[in-house]
Amino acid sequence: MKAGGILNRDLMRAIADMGHTQIMVIGDAGVPVPDSATRIDLALAQDIPTIQQVLKYIMDEMIYEKVIVAEEQKKYNPKHFEAVSGLSKRCQVETMPHEQLFSTYLPKAKYIVRTGSFEPFGNVVLQAGIDAPKWFAKDGCLVPGYYEERVEYKG
């Protein structure tokens, strides 16, 4: 038996299955799941579990290089935006219009994790990354400029 962290088998399998640049969406109770994505349904009741609760555990287990939310989240749900930003230790949270976020990332999502959140504009897109400090640690490897910040990541 696993000692801690994420205990849900399907969610752990999904995290282990993610490859560089692939997309995982952590969605609210109403997130539409296209047929092309695998749904991991964690919703039990209203706000059980919340996006923030699930996101914290996923971010602890997954190497991500982008976090993207709807720009409307920043304006209409600022406490949620602050919480998501506080959880993101690897990168700044990016924003884009809600409709663009849905049309761009839902069709690309490998996994969509449905929570019980009733959270306006609450969905969070994670793009899988690589453990850059380990990838570029080999003697003789040169770090491209766009990876320099990721190579310095220690957490």
TrEMBL record:
This is D-ribose pyranase. InterPro entries: D-ribose_pyranase, RbsD-like_sf, RbsD_FucU. It is an enzyme of class 5 (isomerase). SUPFAM superfamilies: RbsD-like (SSF102546). Keywords: Carbohydrate metabolism, Cytoplasm, Isomerase. It catalyses: beta-D-ribopyranose = beta-D-ribofuranose. GO terms for biological process: D-ribose catabolic process. It comes from the Bacteria. Its EC number is 5.4.99.62. Pfam families: RbsD_FucU. One of its GO terms (cellular component) is cytosol. GO terms for molecular function: D-ribose pyranase activity; intramolecular lyase activity; monosaccharide binding.
